[in-house]
Design brief:
Blueprint (H helix, E strand, L loop, with lengths): L2 H13 L8 H13 L3 E6 L3 E8 L5 E7 L26 H18 L4 E8 L7 H7 L2 H4 L4 E12 L2 E4 L2 E4 L1 E10 L3 E2 L9 H12 L2 H5 L6 E9 L6 E2 L2 E10 L2 H21 L3 E10 L2 E3 L1 H13 L3 E4 L10 H7 L2 E9 L16 H16 L1
Parallel strand pairs: 3-4, 3-5, 5-16, 6-15
Antiparallel strand pairs: 1-2, 2-4, 6-16, 7-14, 8-12, 8-13, 9-11, 10-12
Helix pairs in contact: 1-3, 3-11, 6-8, 9-11
Length: 374
């Protein structure tokens, strides 16, 4: 398929975003594309996941190439003709582009690929916080398709177009979520002495939560805690009966992760108790850290150089999280950042994938296969 046709397909996917585990149209398009390339197709893995299998020669080594395909639950505020046609869903992270780059690589390898072994093209649902990678694994992904190594790429607006980075070891952080409900108060705002002030306690708790990383974590350890939502009250003259706090924690060390979880719960209990209130804490560890294996990280950079990219070792990991981490817990592999600047940041309401990245992504995926199975 010509590059112009791949760009049209990418923009079509952008205009029709689908949220995690509901990528039915996207999965159907992917399956049809792979079928037309003569690639063996398997659907319904992890509910909406698709795997294409391409074999050449007598080699027994199996390589997995993964692209995520879900959108974010947010509005698309871009002014492009191909902006989202679905309210509350937008491809603001570039998964439409990742999907098309892997489809382009699948087509090229099916037509011209010279390799000895098996390539599994893994199109994964539900990357955005609901663990589609784990769902595919739990549904037998690596039992049915026993990959010896797995690779993935993400467009990266922090790097210029034409550059790529990764590193051995941690490349993306573990992602945790905390939800705290403060309750036991409520009353007239003009009579605070007759009630317990949930918002005052909640405000104090927010301030103290933001001291955990600075005062409880070793200065050489990397960690981030951010309160992202505070909710409580519905009137100017009422102290609400309860208030809620939601936030995220990002870490690389399980020990630091344990310490922060313990401190969040401790502060919530003690601060609310001091105000005569109670706190309920729900702490969820939804993604582990993304850890590249050394040999595969090196190969990923070599393949980037082969693709004409300026490849370099990433100076430090990102605090964002990625559920490709679950696949890297099962198999050796690597996750690569593919520079896409200029453009809006990931998850911005006006974000659009940089179509100039598509040829680089195709060359990189194909280059990984050439180096692994050449």
């Amino acid at each position: 398929m010509a590059l112009t046709s791949l760009i049209e397909l990418r923009r079509d996917l952008h205009a029709h975003p689908e949220l995690g585990y509901h990528e039915f149209r996207t999965a159907e398009i992917i399956a049809g594309f792979l079928n037309r390339c003569g690639i063996e197709v398997h659907t319904g893995i992890g509910k909406t996941g698709v795997v294409g299998v391409l074999k050449r020669g007598n080699g027994t080594r199996v390589i997995g190439l993964r692209a995520d395909m879900d959108a974010l639950p947010m509005a698309d505020e871009s002014e492009q003709p191909w902006r989202s046609q679905h309210a509350g869903a937008a491809h603001a992270c570039g998964h439409d582009g990742h999907t098309v780059m892997l489809l382009g690589a699948a087509e090229y390898l099916a037509r011209e690929g010279q390799f000895d072994g098996t390539v599994c093209f893994i199109f994964q649902p539900a990357e955005e916080g609901i663990a589609g990678a784990k769902a595919m694994i739990d549904d037998g992904l690596f039992h049915r398709f026993p990959c010896d190594a797995v690779y993935a790429v993400h467009n990266w607006p922090e790097l210029p177009l034409g550059e790529a980075q990764t590193r051995a070891g941690a490349i993306m952080a573990a992602g945790d979520r905390f939800d705290i409900t403060v309750s036991g108060g409520g009353g007239h705002a003009a009579q605070p002495h007759l009630s317990r002030d949930t918002l005052l306690a909640t405000s104090e708790l927010v301030v103290q939560l933001n001291t955990i990383v600075a005062r409880a974590i070793h200065p050489c350890e990397a960690a981030t805690l951010t309160v992202a939502r505070i909710q409580g009250g519905s009137s100017h003259n009422m102290i609400p009966a309860k208030a809620e706090i939601t936030g995220t924690v990002r870490t690389f060390s399980p020990q630091v992760q344990d310490l922060i979880e313990g401190r969040v719960k401790q502060l919530a209990e003690h601060i609310t108790a001091a105000h005569g209130l109670a706190a309920e804490v729900k702490y969820t560890r939804y993604y582990p850290a993304t850890i590249n294996s050394e040999a595969e990280a090196h190969l990923a950079l070599q393949a980037a150089s082969d693709a004409g990219l300026k490849a370099a070792i990433a100076p430090y990991p990102a605090m964002t999280s990625e559920d490709f981490a679950f696949m890297l817990q099962e198999k050796p592999g690597a996750y690569l950042w593919l520079g896409s600047a200029p453009g809006y940041p990931l998850h911005h309401p006006r974000f659009d994938f940089n179509d100039d990245l598509i040829p680089y992504g195709i060359k990189w995926f194909s280059g990984v296969v050439a180096r692994e199975l050449g």
